[in-house]
Amino acid sequence: MLAYAVTFLVPLAVSLGMTPLVARVARRLHAVDVPGGRRRHHGNIPRMGGLAVVVGFLLALMLPSLFPSSFPPTVDPNQPVWFRGLILGVLVAAIGGLWDDLRDLPPAHQMGIQFLCALIAIWATLFIERVNNPLTNEQVVFPRPIVWGLTIFWVMGMMNTVNWLDGVDGLAASVAGVFSLVLVVHLTQRGLHSVALWPLALLGAVVGFLPYNWPPARVFLGSVGSYSLGYLMAVLGIAAGAKVATVLLVLGLPIMDVAWQIWRRWRAGHSPFTGDRGHLHLRLYDRGWSPRRILLLYVGWTAVMGTLALVVSSRALKLILLVVVGIIAGGILLWATRQGR
Description:
The protein has one domain. The chain has 13 helices and 4 strands. Helix 2 crosses helix 8 and helix 4 packs across helix 5.
């Protein structure tokens, strides 16, 4: 319990203390979001706040190396290489995101950063190698090319999901926090305490950042934060041994929203990466929903789905839940799209 407490409190304190400093630096570097166009916030808000989250998370990950006798021992033989992939990948995501915050990179460069992060995950064996067939209870093992393709799609998709979710104050960070808490509980139930420290560290860093990002936000995550959170959520879900159905249940609404917008933009003859206000959270905001109300909707959805993912053990029942969640999410998105016309 002491290891859990320290792993949570250290990144929380670092993120809480560092975020105002990062905001000042962002202002001096002119890394601020100015109202206008797709942006409907008030005042010039500094981005790059996610840098404090990343630093707090990384410092927490170093604690077991500094005080090995005070932390749970490694229980999975793959954990050392996973750890290297975790560190290297989040560094690449953070540096690439920081570059985007300062230079406003074109979509091709952003995709390149995400692709590199996916390759790092594959190198660290943080890949989707097998899934459980809910009808036969047998594992389906994929050949290597499919493993690589699925992992690239998974990592890049998650990074884009979090990046596009970061359109309302506190939304992306709050969803990441709930997701991290679900993984902590999941890993603790399985007795994988040393791996559980990783999402716990992320949870602490996010909680330390949220006082500044909660509506009305004084600082934004920026690409450095959304890229890093997206990468970490993608690979921590794999490292946790969480089944694909579990992660899809927890993040079903944001993932469905991303897929919906890509399809909608493609049908309209636009690039999928052309920014607009078609996302569900932005449509709700434009219809008069307050940022807090939108945030509570997403957090409530994520929390309920996360609870179901933890308590439901039947693979067949999870498949049924996924179908039901997909129908509900699709209905919400269809309603929001028609309301926005």
